Amino acid sequence: MGEKFYISTAIAYTSGKPHIGNTYEIVLADSIARFKRQRGFDVYFQTGTDEHGIKIEEKARDAEVSPQEFVDGVAKQIKDIWDLMNTSYNKFVRTTDPHHEEVVQHIFKKMYDNGDIYKDEYKGLYCTPCESFWTESQLVDGKCPDCGREVKEAREEAYFFRLSKYQKKLEQYIEEHPDFILPVSRKNEMLNNFIKPGLQDLCVSRTSFKWGIPVTFDDAHVIYVWLDALTNYITNIGYDVDGSTDQFKRLWPADIHIIGKDIVRFHSIYWPCFLWSLGLEIPKQIYGHPWLLMNNDKMSKSKGNVIYADELVEKFGVDAIRYYLLHEIPFANDGNITYELVIEKVNSDLANVLGNLVQRTISMGNKYFEGKVTNKNVVEEVDKPFINSINELNRKVEEKMNGYQTSDAITEIFNVLRASNKYIDDTTPWILAKDEGSKDRLETVIYNLLESIRVCAILLQPFMPETNEKILKQINNTREEFNYIEDNKYELTTPEVLFQRIDKEKFLEEVSKLKKYRNITFGFIK
Length: 526
What we know:
By secondary structure, the chain is an alpha/beta fold.
């Protein structure tokens, strides 16, 4: 068993179907989990759904169903989309699971018993969609600083967590561990905007609604959704206050929480303090990933600019969408999606660069050598930099992925794929084929191309697992080395098209008809 690696996404809130921006997070985490498995790590990958709170209670009432029926339906929808995107999670958790609820009650009681939770009255400005209280000074233009919606005055009896008690410890920890919050812009935002101005004690219970986990010793209160949600990372791997399982002892602390940049505050401020209150270690890293914008605007159902993963997969396929999400959203800056941009990437990168290379190379191997290709070692000067680029690729990809920079890792792979296409132009196999005396040189050229394709396919596996399988099946080779091999043997199969080129005008015309039919505004570049 290799070194453990525990990775999690935030748990998706069950208020409705997740759009492609929400889906990005699970695909990003999956690519990291797959990469770590490929490197021999014993990976535990957890995701799931966050199912309590006043917002759920209100939506269930509007839908005329019970809150449990409502979250059951949405949780299934979320899980189906995660499965559609071919994500390799080990566990899909739900916060309505009875075991989770019971352990959360134990956690609340332990914090109360050790003096970190106390009862008082709360008066503040509450944002229902974000389940968050704010002070007047924290508002932006009088509205919630996270989502920009209206806030309401709320006053009620509540239990509070002594967040202020941990202020200095948290500030010192973040300053001494500069890689705790990624990227650095998020770390600076947390320190300068939230921690250093002074942490206020945190409301951790509510009395104004019932859809939550009851406080065992005060049944007028339910446990505030953030305490309930954040603790999922430990309750589902075997933590309990009276004794934890071997699984918990092996997996905790988490190696990384992959979350949206809008909830970094909860994960980098509330969560460490909760864990310290329980006497536990805090996670090693928190990566607040950027957003995926629609036509450079934040996705919102009210704006009508939302696209869903299942719609995109239906039109482009799973791996094309995985490629777009993982390559087109940078490490620290927001990405952008429109149908035009997806089509452009499918045609230029997937069809032209990758698909064309694989098809050309296999076709030449079949045409000139009946599919049986070995290395004849007839080397020319043009081969050396090409083979060197193949041998350097694994190091470059690993370097990028160790910093969770998936976009840059994929770019490195496609640089070698482009170099492979250029290598075909430089070596002119079709001319070599006309000269019987150049047959061994021709076979060497095709062998070098197949080695490049094999290595690139293996390194693409975390990002495009289906495409990886298709390529390896077509080149019919099971060698797993991440570098050029001198003595490989290929018995090729019939090449198949990996990615079809898309007729942009015809596609957009069809989508436009669908848009009018559904009365939905899709992302077209203005």
